[in-house]
């Protein structure tokens, strides 16, 4: 029993000696002196002040550039439907044909009435001329005046007949319902043989023009007031006080290749939502955008002098303020808080709190705390917000033989 206790005590003494040797070697190892962690390698971007565009992303819906509810202007029976449902038609193309027998008869009757009225004019003119020759040889003034009235009545009958003929011709032409503009048709609500009436409440079909197309956007009135205040203070520059261009992202996340323009903006704010409407117009030659589609538009609202902080390198504190981590001159991590920031593409634009040459940590900051030592590797951030290394890290010294 005593022998076993001696062996156990000797084994414990050996383990303690080995642990002490290990701690001593660790204290002497490079980079481990005093228990300090080696600097963490991080990607940094060197800050430089410049003029950058300010952007805002707004939700919106697409709507047709023009919409027409096609209705008949004369009554009758539909004789022909000349378009293919859901197809494109040109301005002036025939859409519907209404039976025109009665309208042809009315037109012929109006033509006959005009010829009859015109036939009485020469007789009235001859009678007036004769009375004028006889006025000094016993003809009375009453007969002369009656001849003048008769001619005037004959000429008025001609004018009335011409108007009736024109009206009959218009109604005859209205039996052909044509497209008022170029667009895409919907399904027809009526078929051949259906009876329609003039100016009925139900439309025959709907015609929509999709190229160009409108995008209805909504913006907060608070943002509008902030923008106007920034413009008045001189922080934001806008050329001609107009929005330069508008870019659009479709519902599937793809960017629409065409740049749109501001068409109009409402001069009133909604009482229910506190927003105001902006309408943009985009070319849509391939009919890629359809009415009712949900989109997001990035609007360029002006330019401002400042520094760009990529969105991937920034966070928000509990108060909603923008925060980012920088590397100090002595190679330590420093967190800065910014009270005011603007959107510029995939970046935040900050006008104060940064100086030229400051190094913003854009990658690797998630695992380092305040005051931690870091080793910088210069990088850039491309338009898509991805970090690209521009300077390779220093190579480790070669081992001495």
UniProtKB/TrEMBL annotation:
Major location category of this protein: other
Stretches assigned to the Multidrug resistance protein MdtA-like barrel-sandwich hybrid domain: 67-206
Domain (Multidrug resistance protein MdtA-like alpha-helical hairpin): residue spans on this chain: 108-175
SUPFAM superfamilies registered for this protein in UniProt: HlyD-like secretion proteins
PROSITE patterns the record matches: PROKAR_LIPOPROTEIN (PS51257)
Keyword Signal attributed: yes
Keywords from the named record: Coiled coil, Signal
Domain Multidrug resistance protein MdtA-like beta-barrel: 212-303
Coiled coil: 144-178
Family: Belongs to the membrane fusion protein (MFP) (TC 8.A.1) family.
Protein name: Efflux RND transporter periplasmic adaptor subunit
Taxonomic source organism: Rhizobium wuzhouense
Taxon lineage: Bacteria, Pseudomonadati, Pseudomonadota, Alphaproteobacteria, Hyphomicrobiales
């Amino acid at each position: 029993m005593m022998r076993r206790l001696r062996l156990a005590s000797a084994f414990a003494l050996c383990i303690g000696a080995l642990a002490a040797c290990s701690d001593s070697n660790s204290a002497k190892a490079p980079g481990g002196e005093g228990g300090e962690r080696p600097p963490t390698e991080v990607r940094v971007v060197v800050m430089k002040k410049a003029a950058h565009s300010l952007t805002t992303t707004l939700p919106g819906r697409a709507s047709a550039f023009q919409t027409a509810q096609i209705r008949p202007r004369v009554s009758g029976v539909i004789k022909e439907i000349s378009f293919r449902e859901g197809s494109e038609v040109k301005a002036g193309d025939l859409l519907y044909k209404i039976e025109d027998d009665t309208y042809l008869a009315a037109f012929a009757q109006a033509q006959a009435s005009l010829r009859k009225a015109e036939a009485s004019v020469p007789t009235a003119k001859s009678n007036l001329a004769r009375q004028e020759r006889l006025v000094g040889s016993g003809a009375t003034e009453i007969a002369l005046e009656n001849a003048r009235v008769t001619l005037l009545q004959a000429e008025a009958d001609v004018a009335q007949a011409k108007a009736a003929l024109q009206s009959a011709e218009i109604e005859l032409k209205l039996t052909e319902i044509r497209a008022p503009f170029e667009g895409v048709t919907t399904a027809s609500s009526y078929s051949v043989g259906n009876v329609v009436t003039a100016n009925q409440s139900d439309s025959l079909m709907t015609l929509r023009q999709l190229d160009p197309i409108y995008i209805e956007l909504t913006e907060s009135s608070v943002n509008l007031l902030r923008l106007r205040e920034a413009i008045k203070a001189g922080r934001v520059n806008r050329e001609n006080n107009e929005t330069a261009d508008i870019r659009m992202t479709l519902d599937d996340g793809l960017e629409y290749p065409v740049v749109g323009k501001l068409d109009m903006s409402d001069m009133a704010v909604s009482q229910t939502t506190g927003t105001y409407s902006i309408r943009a117009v985009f070319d849509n030659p391939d009919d890629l955008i359809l009415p009712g589609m949900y989109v997001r538009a990035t609007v360029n609202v002006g330019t401002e002098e400042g520094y760009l902080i990529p969105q991937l390198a920034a966070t928000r504190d509990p108060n909603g303020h923008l925060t980012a981590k920088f590397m100090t001159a002595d190679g330590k991590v420093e967190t800065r808080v910014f009270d005011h920031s603007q959107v510029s593409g995939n970046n935040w634009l900050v006008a104060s709190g940064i100086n030229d040459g400051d190094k913003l940590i854009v990658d690797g900051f998630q695992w380092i705390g305040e005051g931690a030592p870091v080793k910088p590797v210069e990088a850039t951030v491309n338009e898509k917000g991805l970090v690209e290394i521009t300077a390779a890290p220093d190579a480790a010294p070669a081992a001495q033989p």
